[in-house]
């Protein structure tokens, strides 16, 4: 199976919604405009494709000098355990460079995954949750 990774092909909101629905990533998939806004305002998106099918995505917001917030990492369930997520994170880190840290908030079901691909668990994060 050949997976193609791309920094320049931004998926449509429909493709993103289909992927998020498949992975059950808790995102506002019933609100296409909001999904589109999330992607319009992200400045580092890495995609993984099997032929014409979007099978993985890493969506980040970065300043390119200090920090990169990896907001979404989603891999289609039929394509998990093939290293696609690890490659998306690796490509994201390569793109932002050595001076920039990559940080994320994990969904509960992925807490054991991230240490396996090089992340360190932190206990010093704070959030103000969204109201809707």
UniProtKB/TrEMBL annotation:
CDD domains: NAT_SF. The keyword Transferase applies. Gene3D superfamilies: 3.40.630.30. It comes from the Bacteria. InterPro entries: Acetyltransferase_Butenolide, Acyl_CoA_acyltransferase, GNAT_dom. Its EC number is 2.3.-.-. One of its GO terms (molecular function) is acyltransferase activity. PROSITE patterns: GNAT. Residues 5-132 form the N-acetyltransferase domain. Keywords: Acyltransferase, Transferase. The keyword Acyltransferase applies. PANTHER family: FAMILY N-ACETYLTRANSFERASE, PUTATIVE (AFU_ORTHOLOGUE AFUA_6G03350)-RELATED. This is GNAT family N-acetyltransferase. It comes from Flavobacterium ardleyense. The lineage of its organism: Bacteria, Pseudomonadati, Bacteroidota, Flavobacteriia, Flavobacteriales.
